[in-house]
Amino acid sequence: MSDVEADWSPIHDAAFNGNVLCLQRLMAQGMCVNLNTLDKVSPLHVACRQGHTNCAKLLVENGANVNHTTVDGHTALTEASARGHVTCVSLLLKHGATPPGETSPSSPPIHTAAARGRSSHPECIEALVHCRADVDQDIDSLGSPLHAISNPTRSEKLHCIKIVNVAGADANKSTSGDSPLHIAARLSSPELVSALLHYGADRLLVNSEGKRCLDLVPPDSPVGRLLRETGVSPLKQLCRLSIRKTVGKQRLGFL
């Protein structure tokens, strides 16, 4: 079915409310599953935004375009990832959603999931990483996924850091002059700083202003003490990081 434009339609309304029976009836009457609003929002976008997996499944199985983008560059996968709807994310990936980030370069799904960090977002990130989402993709407004994660601390954020680093993310990748460790230091977050150091973040790295992470915090603060006390990593940690760097992120799954 080709994409067509309309205002908010009955099929959008059914998808928004999770009304599977209404969707079935509308499709039986010939209503197009790829009917888009003037902002290019499809019924599949609406269903995935609301987390209505059964509606999304019905739409996909009846020809909905899983890679269609809105005027803002959002795909259904972006919508589901941003809201932590894991079952929708898995459904879309299973039915041919392109490698995450290729169809929505301004807001890749892994970045939107990483920035939120709610309880279900680590599972979304895990599904995206499993399908080869680029854990080092750099977006002008967001940086890398690791930069997006390095925001005010939540336990889910720490889990997200583990997932992207296990997938081979560069813990020292700089965006807008700052590394993820600089961001965590500015936020005075000992938990984030500790997690990033564990995955190889360089505490002596200098940002675009010529400042080390320790220069951004009071020396007697918890983060300051952590950065000051963290000396040379144990030999086991240095070997682990060296091996990870050598094999590259595309082969980490075989380790």
TrEMBL record:
Repeat recorded as keyword: yes
Family under the similarity heading: Belongs to the ankyrin SOCS box (ASB) family.
Keywords: ANK repeat, Repeat
Keyword Nuclease attributed: no
PROSITE patterns, A to Z: ANK_REP_REGION, ANK_REPEAT, SOCS
Listed Pfam families: Ank_2 (PF12796), SOCS_box (PF07525)
InterPro entries: Ankyrin-SOCS_box_domain, Ankyrin_rpt, Ankyrin_rpt-contain_sf, SOCS_box
Region Disordered, residue ranges: 97-116
The protein's name: SOCS box domain-containing protein
Pathway(s) this gene product operates in, as recorded in its UniProt entry: Protein modification; protein ubiquitination
Protein's organism: Poecilia formosa (Amazon molly)
ANK-type repeats, residues: 39-71, 72-104, 176-208
